[in-house]
Design brief:
Among the domains are: 115 residues, no CATH class; 146 residues, Tetratricopeptide repeat domain (Serine Threonine Protein Phosphatase 5, Tetratricopeptide repeat, Alpha Horseshoe). Helices cover 71% and strands 1% of the residues. The protein contains 28 helices and two strands.
Length: 637
């Protein structure tokens, strides 16, 4: 019976803590006084069941820690006194101090206890923040593709003309904004590359490098990072041969960015250092603003140095360079450049959790985009403002800002960003409990993710759909969505996302009582979390594993549960998450008790309860008048 109380009570907390997308359990407890009272009663019964196991001194301590206000009003009359008749004397015997304490404990019932459960932090949708930043940066105007081996030999100039034609055809396909369009564009750029090579001495290094650069961009967009690296590396000697330091630095920066995403930090740092050296020595890089004055070019150089520092994670240096660029663009009357600088500074502030400052920068960028007639920049900044509003708890304002950005994305035919915005709105609607609307928006975003070839975005939307289906008790659809998300995340090498989805599958199978499947998914998630050194995910997954194993009859499994929970507890303590620390400590205490480690169990429960607000009950106190008024015959024999 005791273990039943433990597992029942802490199931609510585990569900609210481990859910990655939505948590009906949190609202269920926080908004329903009846459930709060029931939990209090269960805890009271739990503690009372402990009392016979303990020594007398410990009983007194347990009483002090566990007593709380009764959920119902106290009785208007005091309880009757219990008197044991003595055959030798009619004189009342004064109770000893121990008997007084025991009578107080005996007077308590399970209804005498009420625990004020601390409010549970609203969970956030996993992956949401990965797709909510849309920093407006200069867009490279290059792409790439393939060739026909069966063509007859042509004059070099004819090959060049065919290459130019293939390039134009590639641009048409790329403008479609779909995954198939990008693949078709890739084929045309490859054709252009082959024809330029076939033109021999007439081919220009910039033409060949430009085609390779376009192929790299398309490969990166379609999720083929290794192929993108290959194309960028091929372009480097060509840019150097052409003396184009601007595009050489740009290619080096992209290589650094991709290696950084792949977790190869040393290789990424090497490319970043090479790019920064070129920028510092040549004073040029791709133009952001529309001004070609000396001040505008200087601002562009400074801005791109800021980008390089941001890619390397040197946030303070990046911020300083963005500030300098903004001042120079302002002096040059370059509204697009200045708006880009404000937007970049706002995004740095947002990533650092400084949301009021971020909103201020974005608000300064917005009228500049509108003055310049730049719909993309305006949509970018509106979306970033939406993110800041959401992160600041202003959900309705966030929805309004995202909805303002939607028609702008549609006006410029940017279906990828349209899908991202629909997903963001759906996530907020789900957090607000508007499940039907959230489902409609997710299902609207999903085909756009697919048609644009955004596999990471598609995986995130599927993961969120899984969470939504789980919250409305549609487990089969939830599992289906999670499995699709898992396949995509493995395909694109998204280890963090894979760990998230594996944990979600573990949770759903645990809720269905399929413990073996649940354990397998949790173990896979744990292994990935350890490789990523994601301490929060490690701690949560260890706690989930410990909860499942502690409920098993095999002592060996309980010993494993003890190890997992002890490791989880140490992590929550180092992280500083007190609510989860208390929950894990209580689970561990139940495991100690099941293994016969009684003293550890007592200490664990006491420490866990001490972190909650517990109000002592209004115990009935017998006044002198009440004692005098009570007839002697009222004693219970």
């Amino acid at each position: 019976m005791f273990q039943f109380f433990v597992y029942f009570f802490f199931f609510f907390f585990r569900l609210s803590e481990e859910r990655n997308d939505f948590s009906a359990a949190a609202d269920f407890m926080n908004n329903d006084p009846h459930i709060q009272r029931t939990i209090g009663n269960i805890l009271g019964a739990l503690l009372l069941s402990l009392l016979p196991l303990l020594e007398t001194p410990v009983m007194a301590q347990t009483q002090v820690l566990s007593v709380s206000t009764p959920p119902d009003p106290a009785p208007s009359t005091p309880p009757k006194q219990t008197k044991v008749p003595n055959s030798n004397t009619n004189k009342k015997k004064e109770p000893t101090p121990t008997e007084k304490d025991s009578s107080k404990i005996a007077a308590l019932s399970t209804k005498s206890f009420r625990v004020i459960v601390p409010s549970i932090i609203q969970p956030k949708v996993e992956g949401f923040y990965d797709y909510s930043y849309r920093i407006d940066m200069p867009t490279d105007m290059y792409l790439e593709a393939n060739l026909d081996p069966a063509r007859p030999t042509l004059a070099p100039e004819q090959y060049r003309n065919i290459a130019r034609q293939r390039w134009k055809e590639a641009e048409v396909f790329r403008a479609q904004g779909t995954a198939q369009g990008l693949r078709n564009a890739q084929m045309k750029f490859e054709d252009a590359l082959r024809y330029w090579r076939a033109s021999g001495s007439l081919s220009q290094p910039t033409e060949l490098a430009g085609a390779l650069n376009q192929l790299a961009i398309i490969s990166d967009t379609l999720g083929d990072k290794q192929q993108a690296i290959n194309y960028y590396q091929q372009s480097l000697p060509l840019w150097r041969a052409a003396g184009d330091r601007t595009n050489e630095a740009s290619a080096l920066t992209q290589l650094g960015r991709i290696y950084n995403l792949l977790g190869e930090k040393q290789q990424a740092q090497s490319y970043f250092n090479q790019a920064r050296l070129i920028v510092q020595t040549s004073g040029i890089l791709s133009s952001v603003g529309g001004s070609f004055s000396a001040g505008g070019r200087e601002a562009t150089t400074i801005f791109n140095l800021g980008k390089l520092y941001e890619e390397q994670g040197q946030i303070q240096k990046a911020f300083e360079f963005y500030q300098q660029a903004q001042t120079r663009w302002n002096n040059a009357k370059d509204t697009v450049g200045e708006a880009s600088a404000f937007n970049a500074m706002g995004s740095l502030a947002a990533r650092g959790g400084q949301f009021p400052q971020a909103a201020g920068f974005y608000q300064r960028a917005l009228p500049l985009w509108r003055t310049a007639g730049d719909k993309r920049g305006e949509a970018v900044t509106l979306s970033n403002l939406g993110f800041v509003a959401d992160a600041s708890g202003q959900k309705e304002r966030a929805i309004s800002l995202y909805q303002e950005a939607l028609p702008l994305w549609r006006a410029i035919n940017d279906r990828r960003s349209e899908a991202t915005t629909l997903n963001d709105i759906a996530s907020i609607q789900a957090m607000l409990g508007r499940n039907d609307l959230a489902l409609k928006l997710y299902l609207e975003a999903l085909p756009l993710r697919r048609v644009t070839g955004d596999k990471r975005g598609e995986a995130m939307t599927l993961n969120n759909l899984g969470g939504l289906y789980f919250s409305i008790n549609n487990s089969p659809r939830a599992i289906e969505s999670y499995l699709q998300a898992l396949e995509l995340r493995r395909m694109v090498g998204d280890k963090r996302g894979e760990a998230v989805t594996l944990g979600n599958l573990g949770l759903i199978y645990q809720s269905l009582g399929e413990q073996q499947k649940s354990l397998e998914y949790y173990q896979e998630s744990l292994a990935l979390a350890r490789t990523l050194n994601d301490r929060v995910r490690i701690a949560g997954t260890l706690s989930s594993l410990g909860e499942i194993l502690s409920a098993m009859k095999d002592v060996k499994e309980k010993q494993k549960a003890k190890q997992y929970l002890e490791e989880s507890l140490a992590l929550w303590q180092s992280i500083g998450d007190r609510p989860r620390e208390a929950s894990t400590r209580a689970l561990l205490a139940g495991t100690y008790l099941a293994l016969g480690e009684r003293q550890k169990a007592i200490a664990g429960y006491q420490q866990s309860l001490s972190s909650w607000k517990i109000i002592p009950p209004q115990l009935p106190v017998k006044t002198k008048q009440a004692t005098a008024a009570a007839p002697q015959s009222s004693a219970v024999k």
